[in-house]
Amino acid sequence: MLTAKNFLTGLTAAALLGGASAASAETVSITAQDQTIIDDTVVAERVVAEEDGYLVLYTVKNDGNGFATVDQPVGYTPISAGVNENVLVTPSPSIPSGDRMVLMLHTDATGDKPGEFEFMGDSSKDGPYLIDGYVTMLVIKAK
């Protein structure tokens, strides 16, 4: 796992490159590798969170000018505060081989619907987990 302080803000970054790059802090992290998607499941080997929330899988959209944007959430799974091992996310639709994807931590900020990720229907709820204003995320590639 690589750690970096060059987190993506505004969910946009210049030229997201394939391979593992992580956004993490001392206690919060996502560990996953580029992977072959088997049974329509993406696996994060380890997710460390300070609070209950969600690991959300996003597609990546390229603008043709060397910029890439985190696009649509296509799957999520609840995570617990602390260490979570072998976290599975099932995307819908499937992620094609060669495409990049983003695993991002989100809060369970509303807590009004336990276990339900409300961001997919309302972007004002269950937003990205931020550390010093930066999104906690990891870019990986489907093989």
Notable traits:
three-stranded antiparallel beta sheet, six-stranded antiparallel beta sheet, globular, disordered N terminus, 143 residues, 0% helix, single chain, mainly beta
Notes on the protein architecture:
Strand 5 and strand 6 form a beta hairpin. The chain starts with 11 loop residues before the first strand and ends with a strand. It contains no helices and eleven strands. The model is unreliable at 1-25 (pLDDT under 50). It is mostly beta strands. The strands form three sheets. A six-stranded antiparallel sheet has the order 1-6-5-8-11-2, with no helix packed on it. The protein has a three-stranded antiparallel sheet with strand order 3-4-7, with no helix packed on it. A two-stranded antiparallel ribbon has the order 9-10. It has strands spanning 12-14, 21-22, 29-31, 42-49, 53-62, 67-79, 82-89, 100-107, 130-131, 134-135, 137-141. 0% of the residues lie in helices and 45% in strands. 29% of the residues are buried.
**Quantity of strands, as a count:** 11
Order of helices and strands: EEEEEEEEEEE
End-to-end gap: 18 Å
Rounded mean pLDDT is 80
* Approximate strand percentage: 35-45%
The low-pLDDT segments are 1-25
Shape: globular
Which radius of gyration do the C-alpha atoms yield?
A: 14 Å
Q: In what order do the strands lie side by side in the largest sheet?
A: 1-6-5-8-11-2
The SS-based structural class is mainly beta
Number of helices: 0
Helix content: under 10%
Query: Tell me about the biggest sheet?
Result: 6 strands, antiparallel
